[in-house]
Amino acid sequence: MKCNHDHIKPEEKTEHWAPVLLQWFRTHRRELPWRCGSRRDPYKVWVSEIMLQQTKVEAVRPYYDSWMDRFPDIPALAEASQDEVLRQWQGLGYYSRARNLHAAVQEVQSVYGGSVPDTKKEILKLKGVGDYTAGAILSIAYGKPEVAVDGNVLRVFARLYRIGDNILSASVKQQITALAKAQIPADRAGDFNEALMDFGAMICIPKHPRCEACPLTAYCQARRAGMETELPVRLTKKHVPTENITVVAVTDAARWLIHRRPDKGLLASMWEFPNVIGSGEAGIRAVRDLLQRMGLTVSVKAAPIGTIKHVFSHKIWQMTMYKGTVVSGKLIEKEEWQWLPCQAYTTVPWAGPHGKITAMI
DNA sequence: AAAGCGGGGAC
DNA sequence: GTCCCAGCTTT
Prior knowledge:
Structural class: alpha+beta
Number of domains: 2
CATH superfamily of the largest domain: Hypothetical protein, domain 2
Low-confidence stretches: 1-13
Shape: elongated
Radius of gyration: 25 Å
Distance between the termini: 54 Å
Oligomer: single chain
C-alpha cells in the first residue's frame, strides 16, 4: 500500500475540523459513570483511564462502580491491601494495572499530599501512567491542552488523513500525535479528546465505519478515496502457543491447598491450585513431586474432574483438573502456600481460570 | 522494535 | 475462528 505523506496537501493538513466534532459531541456524548458532574475528580478520571486501557467501556462499567464503592478516594485505596485490590480487579485482566495503580496512589498520598499532580513531568513518573493516560488526565481533569493518542485516535486519524502505514509503528504514532496537536482546541482539550473516543467507538468503528452518520466525511481522505474499510493498517499477530497444564485440587478437612504466583509475570501475585506445565501421567507425577517438596504426600485420582481451555493474548492454557487428598505429611510453612477454608473462596484473588475450578469441586 | 501481559464482545 | 479494545513496562 502506498503511504501517506505524499497524499497530504498542506491545506488539508491544517484543515480545522475540531469544531465540527465538538458540535457532534454536544448531542451524541455518552453518559458514563466517570463523566458525571461538570468538575471532574482527577482520581476518578485516573481510575477510569487505567481500567479502560485495552478494555471496552461495557466491560469496565461494573468494575468502576464496584471500585468506587470500595475505594471512593485516594486515601481509601492507599490504605487497602494488595490482595483486596487484586480481588476488586479480578476478571478485568492486565493485573499489573491494579498493582501499579495501587502503588501510584500510595505515592500520590505520601509525596503529593493526596493530590494528583497536574504537570506532565510529574504525572508521567507515576507507575502505570504513560503518554496516553497522562494526556487524558491532564486534559479531562485539569483542562490542559494535551493530546491523548489511543487506538481510537490512531484509527480516526489514519482514515481522515489516509495514512497507509502500520498505525502501531512509532513513526506513525508520532505523526498522528503532531496532527492531533495541531487540531486540539486550547480551551476544550478534554472535550475534544473524549469526543474523539466517542466518535471512534460509535461512528469511525474498526470494521464497517458508519460513514452515513459521520459528521466529518467532508474532511475524510480515506472516504474520498473509497478506502475507509481498508484503513487503518495494523500489524498482524503471530501464532499463540498452547501450554498443557495439569491442576490438582487438594482438599483436606474442608480446606483447599492454594499457591500464590510470583509477584512478576503472568497473573502476578494471584492465587491458584497446585499445577505444573505438562499433561497425562507425567503431569500428575510432577504435581505430586512438587507437593512432596512442600512436605505433603498426596494421592491423585486418575479420572480428571474436568478440563478448561483458557485463552490469553499471547498463550493458551489447556488445563486438566484432578482431585487429590493428603495421605501424610505436613505443609512446610511458606507464605505463598496456604490452606484456604472452602467457604472463604471469595476472599482471595484467583489467577484467571482457577476461580472457575472452585465451582467444579 | 518486539514481546509480555487478560478477558470479553462483535462478527 | 478473527479482530481489537480510552496501553504500559520490560527486554
